[in-house]
Amino acid sequence: MSVIAGAVSDTLVLSRRSIRRIQRQPDLLVGFTVQPVMFVLLFVYVFGGAIETPGLDYVDFLMPGILVQSIVFGGFVTALGLAEDIKKGLIDRFRSLPMWGPAVVSGRILADVGTNIIQLVVMVPVGIAAGFRFDNGLAQIVAGFALLLLLGYAFSWVFAFIGLTASSPEASNAFGFTILFPLTFISSAFVPVESMPGWLQAFAEINPFTTMVDAARSLFIGTPAHNDVWGAVVWALVIIGVFGSLSVWRYRRTVSR
Fold this sequence. Notes:
By secondary structure, this protein is an all-alpha fold. It has one domain (3-255). It is built from twelve helices and no strands. The longest helix is centred in the middle third of the chain and has 28 residues, at 138-165. It is elongated and about 60 Å long.
């Protein structure tokens, strides 16, 4: 078996391990399903009446932002899982096996793609029930979902690096929320950027989350795209390149101690 084939095989095996963990611990599905649905319902029915989105119903403005946020945070399971594996010494056990070492990381991230699909399957019908409607061609809508999965895959590498760097699962959870949660809110995900104070608006306009949300909004409901779609793809590829390299480096450093 070639090195590449072996790496792919090991990645698939460890990806199945992560998926089976969800079957044994179904409470993990709460983070993928219940929490995002609560965000949709809260923002639509509690805050929606107070937020003006000229030219769009608030639910149509909101759903692409909620989908991007939920997909981005789908990698939290990878951060927690890797931090837990390190804490319990499981990484050392994997090291003793005849396998491609980084598959421990890439397998979890591949599993994240599956859980992100579960999120979309749950959230989209909820959004439609709340009044959201796709308003673009089928090709653009499919491209929107592909973009969401690409963004989720990219940020899973960010969470992998956090999980490999943090001293404990609790610390990885805290780091992730502290770094990423404010960025998702200081963007165009939940309110128009124009409604923010000038100093905050300047940051929101260059925030990559704004580019990602505007790209999803353009593909799903046909708002002006400008360069947002290509910009979101470039951001995703840059994040994969940077944090993929950092995660593999950190993993090798961890197992070489």
